[in-house]
Amino acid sequence: MVYNFSAGPAMLPVEVMQQAQAEFCNFNDLGVSVMELSHRSSDYIAVAAQAEQDLRDLMQIPDNYKVLFLQGGGRGQFAALAFNLMGKNAKADYIVTGQWSQSAIAEAEKVGTVRVLDGFAAASEQGPRALASEWDLDPQAAYVHYCTNETVEGVEYSFVPDTGDVPLIADMSSTILSRPIDVTKFGLIYAGAQKNIGPSGLAVVIVREDLLNQACPQTPAIMDYAAMAKSDSMLNTPPTYAWYLAGLVFKWLKREGGLEAMGKRNKAKAELLYSYVDASNFYSNNVHPDARSWMNIPFQLTDESLNEAFLAQAKAEGLLALKGHRIVGGMRASVYNAMPIEGVQALVDFMDKFAKQHA
Fold it and tell me: What domain of life is recorded for the organism (predicted)?
C-alpha cells in the first residue's frame, strides 16, 4: 500500500478517483467526458450547482454568503482579495505566522497599505512561542487577514481571532473541510483546492454579500468577486474538470459523515503521530503544543545525517513525500482528509523501526 504525505497537490480519496476514472470518457451516458462539456450546457451547470449546494451543506454556509469557484489557486486570491476589499479603504492588517501569511502580504502591498502584526505571543525561555490572541488592530482597516494553518512550519490556529467589527479574512487552503467551523465569524474565506478539496488550480471563495462591490477600479474582471458572483463563477470558462472533481469530493465527505466525522478522524491522526514523536528521543517537533497543526506535522531526526536514509527507506516502504519544506528542513507528514489513519499508523511503525535500526 502506498501512502502519499505530500503537502499539495495532496492525495485524493481513492473512491473519488475511481469514480472519476469510470466516468472519464462517458459522463452520465453522454458519450463524452465531463471536461468536454460546455460550461454553458445544462449538463455541466447541474454539476456546478450540485457542487456548490453540497459545499453549502457541509459547511452550513448562510444564504448571505456567495460561493465562488475560481482559477489561480490560493496564491491568486492573495491579489484578488486585496483588489476586491481595498477599493474604499486601502489599508489592512495582516497577522503573520509563517511563509504563506507572509506571501499574502507581498501581493496586498501592491494594492494598498499593509500593517504587519506578529502572530506569536511574546518570546519565552521555555521553548517554542505560542500563538497570540490579541493585537492592536486598526478599527479603520478594510479587513484583518490571517492564515489558519501554515503548511511549511506546521503552525495552526485552534481558535478564531476576534477582530470586532473589522471583517476577518481567512486563508483556509489547508484546513477547509477538515472540521466544522462557524462561517459567520468570517467576512471571507478562501482556499486553494489542492489539499482537501480537489486538484490544483481551483480556488474556492466564500464571501459575505456586504463585502461585494468594493473592488478597486483597476480590478481585472476575472478577479472581481462581484462580477464572478453575478455570473455564477462563469464570467469566463472555469476550470470545469477541477470543479467536477471537487464536487465528487464533497459527496464523498457527506457519505463519510460530514465535517464532524472528519474532525474526529483528523484529530486522532494528529494525536497518533505527535504522541509518538513526543515520546521519542530519536525524533522531535519544535512547534508549541497549542499551535500544532492537524494537517501538516513537521518533525526532525536528532541525527540529521540520517535524513536521506530515512527518506529512501520510507519511499521503499510506500511512504511518499515526507521531505520537509526547504525553508525548515527535516521531515513533514501532511495528513489531510484523504489520508486514512492506517497511513499514519504505517508511518509511525516505520519511524519506530528506523529508530531502532539506528539506535
Answer: Bacteria
How far from 115 is each of 97, 110, 150, 161, 320, CA to CA, in Å? Answer: 14, 13, 19, 16, 39
User: In angstroms, rounded to a whole number, what is the distance separating the alpha carbons of residues 306 and 42?
Assistant: 56
> Annotated binding site, which residues?
40, 74-75, 100, 151, 171, 194, 236-237
The CATH fold of domain 258-357 = Aspartate Aminotransferase, domain 1 (3.90.1150)
Phi first, then psi, for residue 118 (nearest 5°) are -70, 125
Q: Which residues are annotated as a binding site for pyridoxal 5'-phosphate?
A: 74-75, 100, 151, 171, 194, 236-237
CATH among 3.40.1440.10, 3.20.20.150, 3.40.640.10, 3.20.20.70 for 14-255 = 3.40.640.10
CATH 3.90.1150.10 maps onto the chain at 258-357
DSSP state string for 163-183: -TTSPEEEE-TTTTTSS---G
| Residue 118 to residue 116: CA distance in whole angstroms | 7
Q: Tell me which H or E stretch contains 340.
A: none
Cα–Cα dist 333/3, whole Å: 10
| CATH 3.40.640.10 segments of the chain | 14-255
pTM over 0.90? The answer is yes
List binding-site positions for L-glutamate.
40
Going residue by residue through the chain (359 aa), what tens digit of pLDDT does each one get?
899 999 999 999 999 999 999 999 999 999 999 999 999 999 999 999 999 999 999 999 999 999 999 999 999 999 999 999 999 999 999 999 999 999 999 999 999 999 999 999 977 666 788 999 999 999 999 999 999 999 999 999 999 999 999 999 999 999 999 999 999 999 999 999 999 999 999 999 999 999 999 999 999 999 999 999 999 999 999 999 999 999 999 999 999 999 999 999 999 999 999 999 999 999 999 999 999 999 999 999 999 999 999 999 999 999 999 999 988 899 999 999 999 999 999 999 999 999 999 98
Distance of alpha carbon 224 from alpha carbon 209, whole angstroms: 13
